[in-house]
């Protein structure tokens, strides 16, 4: 098999298209992001990379809290809008219906089927981005996105971001059962 070198690149799939929320100047503001992932199980934690110029980062630094909102495919237009417009110049507090959880300063999006309310643990300056590490203090999910009491990705229908084509996708079909298919050998 022939391989082509691309140089250092961020080709790791899938990348969730998420909406990061913070409170700036007493109002919720939101930005779309895709460089986000689970970092730890206990306590539950995640990472998200934001450019230092992001208005949403101002609220995260001020309050030490933020939200990660997992939008469904149906919200693609609003998610893209939040990525195109800076909260410094555009009031995005009315783009979504919001609510607040236990932290009181991390706005959560009602329309998103999954919301992760986070407390900032630390941040690392990586150059082009600030890596935020947040402890997930509460998780909210729409009841209609559960099957037998568990989150159902098909019902959540999360939005996926793909580079280098810069297109949105949705999850595909199940290909195998985790921790089962490998028992057969290779």
Descriptive tags:
globular, mainly beta, 3-stranded antiparallel beta sheet, Pnp Oxidase, Chain A, 14 strands, 3 helices, 186 residues, 7-stranded antiparallel beta sheet
Describe the secondary-structure layout.
Elements: E1 15-16, E2 18-24, E3 27-33, E4 36-40, E5 45-50, H1 55-63, E6 65-70, H2 76-84, E7 98-100, E8 107-109, E9 114-125, E10 130-141, E11 146-147, E12 150-151, H3 153-156, E13 159-162, E14 167-170
Antiparallel strand pairs: 1-13, 2-3, 2-6, 4-5, 5-10, 6-9, 7-8, 9-10, 11-12, 13-14
Outline of the structure:
Helix content is 12%, strand content 40%.
Report on this model:
This protein has three helices and 14 strands. The chain has helices at residues 55-63, 76-84, 153-156, and strands at 15-16, 18-24, 27-33, 36-40, 45-50, 65-70, 98-100, 107-109, 114-125, 130-141, 146-147, 150-151, 159-162, 167-170. The protein has a seven-stranded antiparallel sheet. It is mainly beta and 186 residues long. The protein is globular, with a radius of gyration of 17 Å. Strand 13 and strand 14 (167-170) form a beta hairpin. The two termini are 19 Å apart. It has one domain: Roll (Pnp Oxidase, Chain A).
């Amino acid at each position: 098999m022939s391989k082509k070198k691309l140089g250092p690149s961020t080709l790791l799939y899938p990348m969730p298209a998420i909406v990061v929320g913070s409170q700036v100047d007493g109002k919720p503001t939101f930005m779309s992001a895709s460089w986000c992932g689970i970092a730890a199980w206990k306590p539950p934690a995640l990472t998200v990379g934001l450019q230092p110029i992001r208005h949403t980062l101002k609220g995260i630094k001020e309050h030490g809290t933020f939200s990660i909102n997992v939008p469904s495919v149906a919200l693609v237009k609003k998610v893209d809008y939040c990525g195109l417009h800076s909260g410094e110049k555009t009031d995005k507090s009315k783009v979504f219906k919001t609510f607040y959880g236990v932290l009181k300063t991390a706005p959560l999006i009602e329309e998103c089927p999954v919301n992760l309310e986070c407390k900032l643990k630390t941040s690392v300056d990586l150059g082009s981005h600030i890596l935020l590490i947040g402890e997930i203090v509460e998780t909210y999910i729409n009841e209609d996105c559960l099957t037998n009491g568990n989150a159902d990705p098909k019902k959540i229908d999360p939005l996926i971001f793909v580079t280098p084509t810069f297109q949105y996708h949705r999850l595909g079909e199940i290909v195998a059962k985790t921790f089962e298919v490998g028992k057969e050998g290779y």
